[in-house]
Amino acid sequence: MRVEYIEFILPVTVGKRLQKEMDSTYLTNDCLIHIFSFFHEDDLIRASYVCKEWHEAAETPWLWRQMCLKRWGFCNISLLATDHGKRAWKCYFLGRSNLEIKMTEGRPGGDYVCKSLRGHKGRVVGCVYLLRNSPQLPDFCSFTPTVCTASSDGTVRAWDVQQGDQLWCSPVQSPLTGMVAGPGGARVFTSDTTGLVKAWDSQSGQEISSYSSASPQCTLLPFHVDASSFLLVGNSQGSVHTLTSPSLSKVSSLVVCDTFKVNLLLASPDKKWILAGTKENMDMSPKVLSSQSATCPSEDEDSLRQCLPVSGCCAASFLPSRPATLATVHCREHSRLRQEKTLSVFNISVKKTRYKSEVQVEQVEKFEVVFESQSSDILLEGMGSGTLVVVADKELRVYTLKGQLLCSFQDHIKPITSVCVDSFRVVTASQDLSLRVLTWKTDGDGGLMLESRYHLLGGSHTMSRGFTHVVCDYSSIVASVEAADGKDVLKAYSFNS
């Protein structure tokens, strides 16, 4: 194969290494594959039409696999490296690239379809995915996403996101106050104003079991460890109850913040650690618990919990790729100004001695943050192994763990009420009745940055009061709109693959 045939398609930036490969007059198929690895996908597709040899080289699974791993280092190799067809890697790359372009540009009508999901006669207090699409799957848009919502009207409802249809609705009960989904979305759990916690089958909408917490306000956390499932319930008396799932039988109870409501409750990605505390008392410190102390209580359980060496915690998040690393936003020491906060990063470990094991919390980073607003409603999310997303009032900021401010955005004109963070994008929901979509990119030093892309609008300001919740899967976004007449509506945005 002669070199001159390739000249019209070579990118200018292939560099000296590629030029050296082309010094010979004739190219082998292996050499072509190596050269094609430098191409953009559009150039590679055009190259496949030149001749038979070029077509075979451009269709090589190894080549498309390399392009996938270069662009998405986290895509699932084991699922795609099968013999279902040599075009698996190519189809995955082109399909996922096309979808991400549409999610980046967000043109109404062409890139996505919006459905309004109506049926609730009260305020939406929770929204979770039951069935979601993921980029880790070979066919990342193989599922029809479904979400489940809970409302102050006393009903739980499931919805088809793409069609906008209601799938089922529970019988009316006391006004609901919260909802979470169990692992895999097979079950959902709700709490109501009487303190009754219930488990529901997500396929049929049938009630499975119930538990009375005797608390008008509960914070729920589903928990799966060592092939066993649990539900943690934080109550308004400062205790955390551990229940089996889905039978909701009580396993243990421990006091975290006596007389104050437990409204800070989260688990590490590997389920080894639990953070529990309150945002109501600025003098109290949250506690880090070993999951063993909650699910398998013993006489020595005090050694498996430890207070964070900070007080007045208003937000916290574990790092997805560093499950033993915890970030918190809390009161600045000796400061009485609510807008002056400190962001601290802790490493959690267990120190084992001959007779017992003890939880240890080490503060590894600390930096000051100042917000324009005095609001205590701060949202904190971790991304990867070293990036933090902080939201306060109308502003979104991205920090490194060492406190370097990477970027900040003020795209909304009213406060942000909810944020959803995944490996591709960040979506913020605001009282200004808009969602803002931002996408991740890698900067020149290999760090993560955000780019602000576009708004998704939620309807008329005369009929609505703004967004209150937002959740996402890989191909869709669902958000709840607070309606002026008290009958909240869901807005479902499905992107075309």
TrEMBL record:
Pfam families (alphabetical): F-box-like, WD40
Origin: domain of life: Eukaryota
Keyword Repeat annotated: yes
Location of the F-box domain: 21-67
Alphabetical list of InterPro entries matching this protein: F-box-like_dom_sf (IPR036047), F-box_dom (IPR001810), Quinoprotein_ADH-like_sf (IPR011047), WD40/YVTN_repeat-like_dom_sf (IPR015943), WD40_rpt (IPR001680), WDR55/POC1 (IPR050505)
Keywords: Repeat, WD repeat
The protein's name: F-box domain-containing protein
Organism: Esox lucius
